[in-house]
Write a structure and sequence with these properties.
The protein is mainly alpha-helical. It has a single domain, classed as AhpD-like (Up-down Bundle). 71% of the residues lie in helices and 0% in strands. The chain is elongated and about 70 Å long. The relative contact order is 0.14.
Amino acid sequence: MNDYTAEQAQIKAYFIQERGYWRPWTETILRHNPAFLKHYAAYAGYPARHGPLSPRMVELIYIALDASATHLFAAGLRTHLGFARKLGVTPVEVFEVFHLVACQGLNHVYDAVAILAEESGLEAGSTLSEAQRVRIQQYFHEIPPFIEQIARMDKAYLDVLLDFLEEGGAMQSKGLAPTERLLIEIALAACFTGFNANMLRVRIRGALNLGVTRAEILQAIQLGAHLSIHGTALGATEFEEI
């Protein structure tokens, strides 16, 4: 049994109240820097508990952020999958989140295509069919310039790209609402692990056009910041082992 001081016991209880878990790395930090752990609990707990997003939506965002190829934090993913299950999140909804995670890598393809178009002198113009324009508008809520550029350079790629984006996605959704998908994509694009300003702008515009509020978008953005604690957790774990 751990021999806590009164202050340490209070901090541990507060951390569990705010974050919902306790791990070996938090135990290490509690012993060596309890003030840090106390203030981290308040800082990380704030965006999860204050704002218009439901606890269910918060957990969906955390699942996306931890599963993202830019983070791949399995321990956190297991924790938030467990919380989500208790809140009634379905397997269909979870795998829609995983689909959005798989689509995240395309954000940088879009940026690279825009640079290639500029540097190679690709002329402006549209080669999109009406059917493609409808599909693009439904998914992006606008016709982004990078999609026009992809179409001019490799139209066949655009078709398979749209098929992938739509598979289990916005147009075939069986669980997540379009606004929920946009909030998850905003969180993925805003997080420091995979920040993408261009896609963030596209998704924020789409969300605002669908009636998502500034407060909802802000909360989705705020939820990604404290993922950096996983570096601290790694450091505390390694410190304890040596």
